[in-house]
What does this fold into?
Amino acid sequence: MNGSTNTRGFWSSRFGFIIAAAGSAIGLGNIWKFPYIAGENGGGAFVLVYLACIVLIGLPMMLAEFTIGRHTHKNPVGAYKAIHPEGLWYLVGGMGVLAGFLILSFYSVVAGWTIAYIVKSIQMTVTQFETAAEAGKYFGAFVANPYETLFYHALFMSLCVGIVIKGVHSGIEKWCGILMPTLLIILLLLMVRSLTLEGAWAGVEFYLKPDFSKLTVKSFLVALGHAFFSLSLGMGAMITYGSYLSKKENLASSAFLVALLDTFIALVAGLMIFPAVFAMGLEPAAGPGLVFHVLPAVFSKMPFGNIVSIAFFALLAIAALTSGISLLEVAVAYFIDEIGWSRKKAVYIVSAMIFVLGIPSALSFGILGDFKLFNLNFFDIVDQVTSNYLLPLGGLLICIFVGWVWGTPKALEEIHLGEHKFPFAKGWVILVKYISPIGVLIIFVDYLYRLFIG
It folds into this structure.
């Protein structure tokens, strides 16, 4: 089946779907966030906990989302309406659409920073700093500049529009087929370069040698939360991408391959970053500033550092773009299916709304820096609301819906279509009905506890 047989469109091949879904999951979280949270939580032991969380929480939920989407061939709102017309379950889909809309508004701002740093690397500006403090000061001045941040925010959104407006097959699938292999090649080349630096092995040991004495209760919660968010769960993206699947595809193995690709990229990103950081004698637990503060100082000390800097920020921009187009597609699919808009109209109006909503986030580190609510700027408020509340709540409700409302027997009927074998069916039922929702509930309660008490 292809896009010509259905007005919504279909993936032309299983590979196209897997590479697009993996592109949705693989974003800034893999290459930016995962290395620094691993650094903050002791390295190797944290990686093992994270892998367990992917298997027990992330993978079962991803399969559940694919199953809902493929069963209905609808956007998140329409999917819930089709399976359970009575009641208010469609609001769960609406919450996912809203979450994707809000996330892209600030995600586009950060993605714009990565594009800006490609340009600044070409201009040899990024690699002129000897220390992380100097690089951090330069980054602070950059994000405080309203003209630059808004320009790159608009540029990133324009790239997303240019791909999504072409549709599922000619746009998303085609470009993910180009961008994802490019991302992998750049990542592997940078990993090899990092591993060949003198003193790099100390970083490998830190990253891969488990030291369980460094694990805390918070480390488990961070691993659990990141495993959930890394796979783009709870925001309707995987339901939307699953809705473009034909009935002949193997849902279980597809979910496994997407999760495997996402996790592989995150692990390789650590092997790219930590050896270089240790080789240059810098701090691995640098937090969110690792990419824009610490790594420019690393590149400045590295042979051919400027070329490495260009490649690295290109890598970040590609990862951001493959995720950005999936976030835009969630909202676009809603307006096409539920409101009856054409794809062109939906893309232009939705992207314009997202850009406008992203303006306060882009200005949060400059002229709107003094605007605070609960001691958070606008950027942080949108981030916290989506990442800490909308996504965990959406994920929890998806598990409840598939496990207890629609029911795992009916979900398994969809999974087994095409006579595909699913040897882990019993285990998946236990995970999606009990383990995954409990894990997500722990994340949600932890966030609420920290908001009101901690």
